[in-house]
Amino acid sequence: MDDECDYLFKAVLIGDSGVGKSNLLSRFSRREFRLDSKPTIGVEFAYRNVRVRDKLVKAQIWDTAGQERFRAITSSYYRGALGAMLVYDITRRSTFESLTKWLEELRHFGDPDMVIALVGNKSDLSEAREVAEEEGRGLAELEGICFMETSALKNTNVEEAFLEMITQIHRVTSQKSL
Ligand code: GDP
């Protein structure tokens, strides 16, 4: 960890293949959109320093790097993660229907206090929408997790979604250490 950082957080990205996880991560960590992403095997992660109130937090965000295609995500992927960004594609209903399975997996492997942020990505493709925004919001309310629609392509709400998750992680961990 950098000397100037107060905390290091690990958070994971999960969701079906092709929903836009790696592009969300490259937006957040490098502020660029990767047009042709070639998923490689093996976990990838990126760091970014974020200021939360008076603290400097180093967020370490893990990406499945295509492993979700082979159901090869194991408990080590979730180990030590304080947050999870659960992503679906608003233009592919099946990716929304898979959320139940991903939530079960998160609750099985993840820390009980893990902060979960539900993200409906590809909001720029509204003409191809198969999942209404209200459905995403409704599920998030039911599960007690936060929700946002994003577009990695247009860079809409990406920063906001990551920062919301990181701020909540900070809140949970600082309450724990009181
Ligand atoms: P992953 O498998 O979940 O990591 O998904 P990728 O990040 O590799 O993205 C899958 C495909 O969706 C790629 O062709 C991306 O260019 C595209 N994509 C990702 N995010 C967006 C978005 O917000 N809008 C649109 N239109 N396409 C996107």
Automatic annotation (TrEMBL):
Query: Its Gene Ontology molecular function terms?
Result: GTP binding; GTPase activity
Q: Which residues of the full protein are shown?
A: 1 to 178 of 213
The name under which this protein is listed is Ras-related protein RABA6b
List keywords of the entry alphabetically: GTP-binding, Lipoprotein, Membrane, Nucleotide-binding, Prenylation
Biological source species: Acorus calamus (Sweet flag)
Q: Where in the cell is it found?
A: Endomembrane system
The entry sums up its family as follows:
Belongs to the small GTPase superfamily. Rab family.
Q: How does it sit in the membrane?
A: Lipid-anchor
Protein origin, superkingdom: Eukaryota
> Under the cellular component aspect of Gene Ontology, which terms does the record hold?
endomembrane system
